[in-house]
């Protein structure tokens, strides 16, 4: 019986197959990691991503301490919308549930769809800014001239004062950017401010 051929050629083939398998596995892992990373950020507040959770009991609120929350609104290029908060900032007692409305208007001449992304600054506040309800990642379709008011319901976790990295903070910013969207997904990958950052709080 003739022995199976061996040598550099066969070894190179095995290496190529192994590399191809590794590449496929890495691509699959990359796609799988996106939702896992998003879920991790929402649960922990990592990377400036606000947590999501239920409201605190009224007894948990601290009436002797508060946080000033500023609102920053932006529209990415390619979406002819106007986007402003009802107020430019609020003072929230720690643990107190607050509701703030934002107004979006299609100022273009054709129907268009958009979806909002968000972030908190300083990034360390992401773990203590808790969203109970939010319009972010919900695709909205507006007709020309149509206006829509959308709310965000949130509280600032009193535990912010127990963290030496955030105990001294008295102000933070919640920032939103609306992107043109298709099938619920932003079609622009680059976050950019609109020609006029209209965070004035004058509906």
Keywords:
203 residues; five-stranded mixed beta sheet; 18% helix; cell membrane
Question: What's the gist of this structure?
Answer:
With 203 residues, the protein is of the alpha+beta class. It has one helix spanning 8-44, and strands at 51-52, 62-75, 81-85, 89-94, 98-106, 112-121, 129-133, 140-142, 147-156, 171-182, 185-186.
What does this entry look like structurally?
By secondary structure, the protein is α+β, with helices and mostly antiparallel strands. It has two domains: 8-44; 51-186, Ctag/Cox11 (Ctag/Cox11 (Pfam 04442), Sandwich). It contains one helix and eleven strands. Strands 2, 4, 6, 8, 10 and 11 form a six-stranded mixed beta sheet that branches. The protein has a five-stranded mixed beta sheet with strand order 1-7-9-5-3. A hairpin with a 2-residue loop joins strand 10 and strand 11.
Number of helices: 1
Helix % is: 10-25%
Describe the main β-sheet briefly: 6 strands, mixed
Number of strands: 11
Low-pLDDT regions: 21-48, 189-196
Shape: globular
CATH architecture of the largest domain: Sandwich
SSE run:
HEEEEEEEEEEE
Cytoplasmic side: 1-10
GO biological process, one term: respiratory chain complex IV assembly
GO cellular component, one term: plasma membrane
Family: Belongs to the COX11/CtaG family.
């Amino acid at each position: 019986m003739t022995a199976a051929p061996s040598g550099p050629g066969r070894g190179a083939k095995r290496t190529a197959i192994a590399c191809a398998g590794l590449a496929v596995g890495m691509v699959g892992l990359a796609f799988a990691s996106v939702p896992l990373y998003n879920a991790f950020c929402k649960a922990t507040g990592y990377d400036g991503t606000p947590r999501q959770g239920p409201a605190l009991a009224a007894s948990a609120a601290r009436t002797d301490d508060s946080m000033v929350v500023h609102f920053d609104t932006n529209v990415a290029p390619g979406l002819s919308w106007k986007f402003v908060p009802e107020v430019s900032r609020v003072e929230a007692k720690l643990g107190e549930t607050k509701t703030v409305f934002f107004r979006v208007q299609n100022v273009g001449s054709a129907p268009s769809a958009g979806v909002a992304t968000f972030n908190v600054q300083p990034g360390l506040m992401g773990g203590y800014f808790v969203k109970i309800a939010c319009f972010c990642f919900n695709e909205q379709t507006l007709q020309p001239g149509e206006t829509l008011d959308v709310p965000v319901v949130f509280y600032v976790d009193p535990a912010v004062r127990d963290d030496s990295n955030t105990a001294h903070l008295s102000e933070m910013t919640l920032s939103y950017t609306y992107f043109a969207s298709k099938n619920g997904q932003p079609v622009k990958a680059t976050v950019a401010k609109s020609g006029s950052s209209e965070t004035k709080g004058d509906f």
